[in-house]
Design a protein that fits this description.
CATH class of the largest domain: Mainly Alpha
Radius of gyration: 20 Å
Distance between the termini: 47 Å
Low-confidence stretches: 96-101
CATH architecture of the largest domain: Orthogonal Bundle
Strand content: under 5%
Mean pLDDT: 82
Order of helices and strands: HHHHHHHHHH
Number of domains: 2
CATH superfamily of the largest domain: Tetracycline Repressor, domain 2
Shape: elongated
Oligomer: single chain
């Protein structure tokens, strides 16, 4: 006898199963039949919740993104912390470090999940940029930054970080990574019209701490 479940519970069961299967077999290597068998449901039930496997992938990416951006927004909203530190912590929020998060990142970076990877990068660019831009506007009000383009500056930074610090895009050793971070901070100060050196030591220290935490 088939068990009837609340729609949201069933939907999450499908997503959990797809998440596990995509990690094991890749997006392209996973069929809808695999998902059906994993959850133990009929095809009609699957298509009631999702139009296609691509739709399931989009829902998973939305789940990942919501988790990431929730953390980023909480960090950005903490007025007890200086703007410089909040900007850096928002960027570091991209470094998902929980056990399930590490598994997510591992299977997103598999070659067979290239489409997922691309969509995640797009979601990060669209979702993280406005959060950072609001922080830059706050910094402008405090006299820390001088730029007429807070959104565009952060869009450039996120696009750069999203590409150069992605191991699938650019392979860097520790020395090269450190140099790229220094270059990013150097140019960020100029993009924002910040005083020379105002971000450098602070951001480098935060990135180093973030790298140690992620080990």
């Amino acid at each position: 006898m088939r068990v009837s479940k609340e729609a949201e519970v069933r939907k999450n069961e499908i997503l959990d199963a797809a998440d596990q299967l995509f990690g094991q077999k890749g997006f392209d290597g996973t069929s809808t039949n695999d998902i059906l068998q994993q959850v133990g449901i009929a095809r009609g039930t699957l298509y009631y919740h999702f139009k296609s496997k691509e739709d399931i992938m989009d829902a998973l990416i939305e789940r990942y993104s919501d988790r990431l951006f929730t953390v980023a927004r909480e960090v950005a909203a903490d007025q007890r912390v200086a703007v410089y530190e909040r900007i850096t912590r928002v960027i570091l929020a991209l470094n998902l470090s929980g056990p399930s998060d590490k598994q997510i990142m591992e299977h997103i970076h598999k070659p067979q999940n290239a489409r997922m990877h691309q969509k995640i990068q797009k979601a990060i660019l669209q979702g993280l940029t406005p959060i950072l831009a609001d922080l830059i506007r706050e910094g402008i009000q405090q006299g820390l930054f001088r730029t007429p383009y807070p959104y565009e500056c952060m869009e450039m930074v996120v696009a750069y970080a999203n590409t150069v610090f992605d191991e699938d895009m650019v392979e860097l050793n520790e020395e090269e990574r450190a140099t790229r971070i220094q270059a990013l901070v150097f140019n960020l100060e100029r993009l924002l019209g910040a005083d020379s050196g105002s971000l450098a030591s602070f951001v480098m220290r935060m990135f180093e701490n973030g790298s140690e935490d992620g080990k």
